[in-house]
UniProtKB/TrEMBL annotation:
Rhodanese domain span: 16-104
Organism of derivation: Glaciecola siphonariae
Name of the protein: Rhodanese-like domain-containing protein
InterPro entries associated with the record: GlpE_sulfurtransferase, Rhodanese-like_dom, Rhodanese-like_dom_sf, YgaP-like_TM
UniProt cross-references to SUPFAM superfamilies, sorted A to Z: Rhodanese/Cell cycle control phosphatase (SSF52821)
The UniProt record lists the keyword Transmembrane: yes
Keywords (A to Z) from UniProt: Membrane, Transmembrane, Transmembrane helix
Matching Gene3D superfamilies: 6.10.140.1340, Rhodanese-like domain
PROSITE patterns from the UniProt entry: RHODANESE_3 (PS50206)
Length: 173
């Protein structure tokens, strides 16, 4: 089966009718701070078709904005082409904008994409300042960071995102 993008309305209808399992592919801390009720947590970095209990069930996948969800769907289909997987376009943010319920926890954590953006911004500012004030050789760090952004933008793979996802604050549930 191929990847199918669906709207939050379609996803809600599938789940309400009992025709789908809802899977959150964000990190544990993101899930514990806010998630769609009755969703199962299977983070993108560890998701596998072997985690799926009923391979005949429709799987509705979501993340924060839709990109990790799409990657999770692609990975599951690669592991088992017979799986029926659907990605919620716009993730949990779009789900909430449609007025559907989310369950909030006690803790709050910054979404992974914003953690990555903040980290890159801080590193670029730091190495730019070091380039101007200490040594021009620090420009190579700016070049490496910029190259990483080009790779992430063109391939969808973000190494920094993977590293930040493994940080302890993102693993706490």
């Amino acid at each position: 089966m191929s990847l199918q993008d669906i709207s939050p309305q379609q996803a809600k209808q599938m789940c309400d009718s009992g025709g789908a399992v809802l899977i959150d592919v964000r990190e544990p801390a993101e899930h514990s701070s806010k998630h769609i009720p009755n969703s199962k947590l299977l983070p993108l970095g560890r998701i596998s078709a072997s985690d799926i209990e009923d391979s005949q069930q429709n799987l509705v996948i979501y993340c924060q904005k839709g990109m990790r969800g799409k990657k999770a769907c692609e990975k599951l289909i690669k592991d088992n082409p017979k799986l029926k997987v659907f990605n919620i376009v716009g993730g949990i943010e779009n789900w909430e904008q449609c007025g559907f319920d989310t369950q909030r926890g006690q803790s709050t954590v910054m979404p992974l994409d914003r953690q990555v953006q903040l980290s890159i911004g801080v590193l670029l500012l730091l190495f730019s300042a070091l380039t101007m004030g200490v040594s021009f050789n620090f420009i190579w760090a700016v070049v490496v960071i910029g190259s990483g952004l080009v790779v992430a933008g063109s391939t969808g793979f973000c190494g920094l995102g993977r590293v930040i996802a493994m940080m302890p604050w993102n693993q706490r549930a």
